[in-house]
Specification:
The protein is globular. The chain is mainly α and about 350 residues long. Strands 1-3-2 form a 3-stranded mixed beta sheet. It is built from 15 helices and 3 strands.
Length: about 350
Amino acid sequence: MSAIKQLLTTLFLLFLLICVGSYFPQWISRYYIQGFYPFLSAINQSLWASIPFSIGDIGYLLAIVLIVKSLIRFSFRRQFWKALSVFSIAILIFYSSWGLLYFKTPIREERKLPNALTVSALTETTTYYANQLKEQHLALSKSPQEPILIDVGTSDLLALATETMENSSLRPDKIHGKAKATLFPTLLSYMGFGGYANPFTHEAQVNTLQPKLNILTTGCHEIAHQWGYAQEDEANYIGIKASINAANPLVAYAGNLLAFRYLINSLHSADADQSQKIIAMLPGGVIAHIKESQSFWKYYQNPFEIVFEKSYDQYLKINKQKDGIKSYSLVVGLLVDDISKL
């Protein structure tokens, strides 16, 4: 028992050090992101990238089995300190492996973005992306009223997302990524998630049941997490920027479509009439892609989805994303800032 208590004391001191470090983002950037993280990322990529299936998914499954098994036989008197030790080690590994990335200075703070967006700036940016979509859709589709025919398999879509991010000028030096299909896409669909980045194995998992354009953008988003962008708005932003600048026109279209969806939702909240005018500009084929994504997530809606969303919302808030699950939509401020500088 004394050995376990000594271990817990050591873990507590290390965790306290992490907590203190979280209030000094310049330390996180200099010593962790620029120093330790590229080395750790390279190790994970060398171990898991060549394996075609998700090691992280298997690890989570085994962990759940072991937890359930332990709970069945759990004795508070005999196993409490042991369980607390295991939990503490897992938390410590999480933050040292990836979680410290949450504490760097956000891009929106570095750019000194305003807390509120003007309707005019939001309208200008949304219109810009609507025009991009119109041009790209006309080049890729047989008819303005028809959606783009995407004759590409799931594995090729993941490879395309990986290639897009690998060749992007935004990729940090010495860091690479790879999109993988999750082993449990149906579960992720019911949970309301398009993908996730495993903080222990640094794998970018993608829900391959979702529409093909979503597979592309989710793959880019999760690889951005692999690169070290933990904040959801920043992973969205990096994934979108890499996509819209890709040489492949389908990837560029997918990136523009994702950006437009975030923008039009924000504009609708600010000025519903203006948003309707912009939507009316779009060809029927673009609207069909938007509705396809909406229909997919509507099909998997269930009473338990709100539980998963609330849990993830709290997880994000604990890790200094005060807007929780709404952090995804903060990408709008970054996109508006880009257009304002053109």
